[in-house]
Specification:
With 237 residues, the chain is mostly helical. It is built from 10 helices and no strands. The chain has 2 domains: 68 residues; 168 residues, Hypothetical protein af1432, CATH 1.10.3210.10. Helix 2 packs antiparallel against helix 3.
Length: 237
């Protein structure tokens, strides 16, 4: 077949077109990669800012508790650690344990709305004073509900005085209607309170605390969580 100059030109032009298209595609791909990296950086920056804002809010709430009642601050900090240790033995993931700790450390935040004289009273509370104290879960609920990214703490704050037998407050929830994280914090709350000297009694010994947990199993506390603690499967003391 005779050599056709036009055929050669067409082949070369098609080759050049493919090369230009390939170069254009590579450029578009590189632009997409740069855009993706930019968006990832923006998302990471937003995430870090969210964490800083979240942690700042938690710290502000903790300081508010401490300013009102130093006992409540120390108590809440230890309750958070106890709750995390119990949750670990129950198979909670690290993320879930962190959320539980964050909720536990501000579980008594509602006490900033309770009269200081009642909080610090050394003798027995009157009926009206106890009624005032009982408002703190709902006060705490209103406080954290005003902060959108604290929604994971709401249940613990609102329900940590519910009892397994349904005789607690504010809603009288019972058994498994009380979320498991709340049941954990309820026990941790009681353990820490028993470990401390109070104006009306001395701190309880390890064996006395175990006895009290056993007495409260099925009434105040989740019996399965109590069993986990009293069978020495978890060291909280």
């Amino acid at each position: 077949k005779p050599f056709d100059k036009d055929d050669v030109i067409n082949v070369v032009e098609r080759g050049l077109l493919k090369r230009r298209n390939l170069k254009k595609s590579m450029l578009e791909y590189e632009n997409l990669l740069h855009t993706k990296k930019y968006l990832e950086d923006q998302i990471e920056t937003a995430r870090q800012n969210f964490i800083i804002c979240y942690e700042g809010t938690i710290k502000a709430l903790i300081r508010a508790i401490d300013a009102k009642d130093h006992y409540t601050f120390d108590h809440s900090e230890h309750v958070a650690k106890l709750s995390s240790a119990i949750a670990d033995k129950l198979g909670f993931s690290k993320i879930m344990r962190n959320k539980l700790e964050q909720a536990a450390i501000i579980h008594d935040i509602g006490k900033i709305g309770v009269n200081e004289q009642i909080l610090r009273k050394e003798g027995s509370l009157t009926t009206s004073e106890f009624a005032e104290i009982k408002k703190h879960p709902e006060i705490g609920d209103r406080i954290v509900n005003a902060v959108p990214f604290l929604e994971d703490t709401v249940q613990v704050i609102l329900y940590h005085h519910e009892r397994f037998d349904g005789t607690g407050f504010p809603e009288g929830l019972k058994r498994n209607n009380i979320p498991l994280p709340v049941r954990i914090v309820t026990i941790a709350d009681a353990i820490d309170a028993m470990m401390r000297d109070r104006p009306y009694r001395n701190a309880l010994s390890h064996s006395q605390i175990i006895d009290e947990l056993k007495k409260g199993a099925g009434t105040q506390f989740d019996p399965e969580v109590v069993s986990l603690i009293t069978s020495n499967k978890i060291n909280l003391f």
